[in-house]
Amino acid sequence: MKIIIVGDGKVGDALAEQLAREQHDIVVVDKSEAALRRAAERMDVLTVRGNGMSGAVLLEAGVEDCDLVIAATSRDEMNMVCCLTAKKLGARCTVARIRDPEYARDVSLLKRELEIDMVINPEQATAAEIFRLLRFPGAVNIEPFVRGRVEMVGFVAEEGDAILGTPLRFLRKRVGADILFCAYERDDEAFIPNGTTEFQAGDCIYAIGEGERITSFFKTLGRDTARVRDAVIIGGGRIARYLARHLIKSGVRVKIFEIDEDAARDLAEMLPEAVILHADGTDMEVLESENFAGAHAVVTLTDRDEDNIMVALYALQRGVERVVAKSNRQNYEPVVRELGLNCLVSPKIITANEIVHLVRGMQNSEGSVMETLYRIVDGKAEAAEFTVSAGTPHLGVPLKKLSLRKNIIIAVIVRDGRIIIPCGDDMILQGDSVILLTSGMTLTKLSDVFAEGSSV
Amino acid sequence: MNTKLVTGMLGRLLMLAAVFLMVPLAVSLGYREKIAHAYLLPALGSLALGLLAVRFGRGARRGLYAREGFIITGAAWILLAVVGAFPFWIEGSITSFIDCLFESVSGFTTTGATILITVEALPHSLLLWRSFSHFVGGMGVLTLFLAILPAMGERSIQLLRAESPGPSPSKFSPKIGGTARFLYISYTGLTLVQTIILRIVGMPWFDAVNHAMTTASTGGFSVKTDSIAFYHSPAINLVLTLFMLLFGMNFTVFFLMFARRFREAFQFSETRFYIGLYAGVVLMMTLVIQDSVSSFGEALDLALFQTASAMTTTGLVAGHYGLWPMAAQVLLCLVMFVGACSSSTSGGLKLSRLMILLKSSARECRRILHPRSVNLVRMDGAAVPENTIYLVTIFFFCYAGVLIAGSVIVALDNTSFATAFSATLACLSNTGAGLGDIGPGGSYAFFSVLSKITLSLAMLMGRLELFPILVLMMPSAWKK
Q1: Between B156, B174, B385, which is nearest A27 by CB?
Q2: How far is Cα B73 from Cα B85, in angstroms, rounded to an integer?
Q3: Angle of CA points A354, A359, A361, to nearest 5°
Q4: Residues A305, A321 contacting (CB under 8 angstroms)
Q5: 0.80 surpassed by pTM
């Protein structure tokens, strides 16, 4: 597909990199020569220098015959005008990044009147992600599928967990057949497990199943600590605002540290139920005086990745159970994980992923539409959800008779609202939703799953 | 340096070189020349070496950075020239290996400087090999790589950048493979068209194919010792002039025309400067030489041809310009020095660089008059980044520096100043034809081994725009 990305900032860059790797034709538009040069050196993309709101620049970028325009500049208004102009000039689809909460309320109006096909709010998406993480204590990563009915949860196995040291085919009897271990990460590599796999302490294991089943699995694992009742948020930016709303709505007491007085006032005005502290959240003294260690969850959301990580590590050391840190830099992740901090969220990756889902969905090839796609383990493995249509091969054939490619697992089949963790006798039928896990390759359509010359 | 990656790439290049050798092999079989071994042996050798290198390069770390890009480019061209020298050597018409290497370098770098005294003495297949090496070298062998190999990785722009002429690589389709494919398709297409037109105006098929390849790559090897003067045909001169000028244009212009973006295509200031400069020089040249040729018509014909030939750094010869007034010869040297448009197959300094240098000089004057003014150098309506201006200045210095150093070394052979200087200039700008002893009908045969090596290096530097070769000479390039 031909995709124009306007604005080569953090999100634009992550998107361009991701989409170019998936063999799309990418044109990046930005005003900054330096940013464009950096992009052109690292990625196979075409760059156009200029203001993405201007029709001439968009035409130069080839908007007339492009499939998708993504406006990801730092300014909402620019993104809106850019999408509007692009649409009028012939772009098939447009996506705008709109982050101001004032506009966020008018999303449906904007979508209708400006014909923007998708509005993405990085802060809101990040807040939603953090909220999900806080709901499952012990989880590193949670991804919803089938509109939230199925969840995939990643957690780190600890010494003494009941699931360690037993081959998976025996484990299934013990854990029950309604959740599936679909992937694991060891030594920075992602693997798809098979019947002989034995988990070790330190592995990051991904389990998939219905939300309640996973909760009860966590209980048997002994990870179900009390529900989060108290949460401390360091840094009162937009993410904090959205997150606090979510938390308050679900009955959590929220305490927010904000260093800027005016910002703290605004927060206090907007979130009357929350305790807003005008203080430096990186100052240990201040944190201690506010009974920091007694909180059930700490979320660090300041502008500086390093501060976030340091405060998060401090919270872990003080015995806080749920700690989530925001970090836009990907390369810190392995280092920090070594120190025990498992939950790092990156707004730019979350945003890029959401748009990548849309792009995948648009690639409506061979009838089987990809609904969602998640990258886990630093992008080394992928989980994708497909809707099965009549064009898919091997419909109605029991799975044990099919030969699948290596490193692929069919994790869940959803049929008429029923969730099936498939075994050898199950089959894929038209109309099903199928969730697949792969490592080391990129799926674009359902038929990629089957090995060459697979028997029918 | 990522040794495995570099070795793997070079291995693939050697295998490609073996494929190239199949072309003259087919011709030699067609003409029943019984010298198939001259092509088969080097082809097998380079294939074997290539397979070994590819084997060694397996499992290379990804990481094609500017350093690797430049090293691959520099080394690839040297290797290619060495492989290309073997057919000459095995066939035996040229006895010394250095001479064979010189001829091969001259071919791939599209210089067209020859050490042959009578070109017709070579068999057909070898003549075609010379022209074909021009053709491959013209658009670039790594560009061909990018065109035919799918998805060489995100950073393969580093290869295109190191090989493509001009201050910045122009990429006009989102995918680098697409850009490279467009370049090769339009290049090959235009070459075929030219072959047919040359045949129509009376050139025999074999000559037409060779001269089309030599023009397309702005090379300069001819299949006749007298070059184009052999034909005494104004029609042939005109066709060749036209195509030389066409191939001296920035290929982006062709792309824009192909995409029906005519307005943008004609707004390219470099193209307009190119046409303007060409017209001006032709006018002067005609006036200067009309007394030394028989008629005004002939003067115009020769001025058109010879200026195009020098400016696009082709180096074909239609008239004995060695007998023309000195002013005409100096003019030829000047246009040879500046060359034609960037991102074309021509050599030399490139007009866009000249324009940036001229405009920066004017800006410096403005700055002295108005010290506080904000001065920008503009090209095509946009400000040229300061870094580009800096790079152009450095390039100009290095280009002039190599020219002077080369001239001094060549002058050790005790030739005339015109010969020493124009030989270095002709090689560095990839023109081939110079003044004095290397003028029309002349050859590089009499130079010493040292001069031949120097000139070969100058040709490579000229084709690759200095830095890939200069970088190879830096010890730190070879460090891990």
Answers
A1: B174
A2: 19
A3: 95
A4: no
A5: no
Q: Which run of H or of E encompasses A249?
A: helix A238-249
Please compute the mean of the pLDDT values over residues B58-84 and round it to a whole number: 86
Residue matched to tokens 């020219």: B403
Residues of B with CB under 8 A from a CB of A: 66, 151, 153-158, 171-176, 178, 382, 385
Other beta carbons less than 10 A from residue B401's beta carbon: 11
pLDDT > 70? residue B404: yes
Q: CA B375, CA A45: separation in Å to the nearest integer? A: 31
Distance from CA of A222 to the nearest CA of B (A): 42
Any long-range contacts for B237-240 (C-beta under 8 Å, 24+ apart)? B237/B301, B237/B302, B237/B304, B237/B305, B237/B318, B238/B301, B238/B304, B238/B305, B239/B194, B239/B197, B239/B198, B239/B201, B240/B198, B240/B211, B240/B215, B240/B305, B240/B316, B240/B318
Distances (CA, A) of A207 to A151, A155, A179, A416, B64: 8, 8, 7, 22, 38
Task: Report d(CA B37, CA B41) in Å as an integer.
Answer: 6
What is the model's pLDDT at position B170? 66
> Which tens digits make up the pLDDT trace of B137-161?
998 888 887 777 655 556 677 777 6
For residue A455, what pLDDT is reported?
42
Note the pLDDT of residue A366. Answer: 42
Two tokens, residue A335: 């280092």
Q: Which of B88, B82, B104 has the alpha carbon at shortest distance from B219?
A: B104
Task: Decide: A228 and A295 in contact? Cβ < 8 Å.
Answer: no
Number of alpha carbons in the 13 Å side-chain half-sphere of residue B363 = 17
Which one, of B124, B130, B123, B163, lies nearest residue B147 by Cα? B163
Strand pairing partners for B195? none
- Residue B140 is predicted with a pLDDT of 86
User: CA angle, corner A56, sides to A52 and A62, nearest 5?
Assistant: 80
Measure in Å the smallest separation between the Cα of A45 and chain B Cα atoms: 5
Q: Give the CA distances from residue B153 to residues A43, A44, B158, B177, B217, in Å, rounded to whole numbers and listed in that order.
A: 8, 8, 10, 10, 28
Q: With the CA atoms of B465, B413, B317 and B28 taken in that order, what torsion angle do they form, in degrees rounded to the nearest 10?
A: -80
Q: Do B173 and A41 touch (CB under 8 A)?
A: no
Residue of A nearest to B152 (CA): A44
Q: What is the ipTM of this complex?
A: 0.70
Q: What is the mean pLDDT of chain A?
A: 82
Interval A235-244: pLDDT, tens: 988 899 999 9
Instruction: Look at residue A189 in the predicted model and tell me its pLDDT.
Output: 79
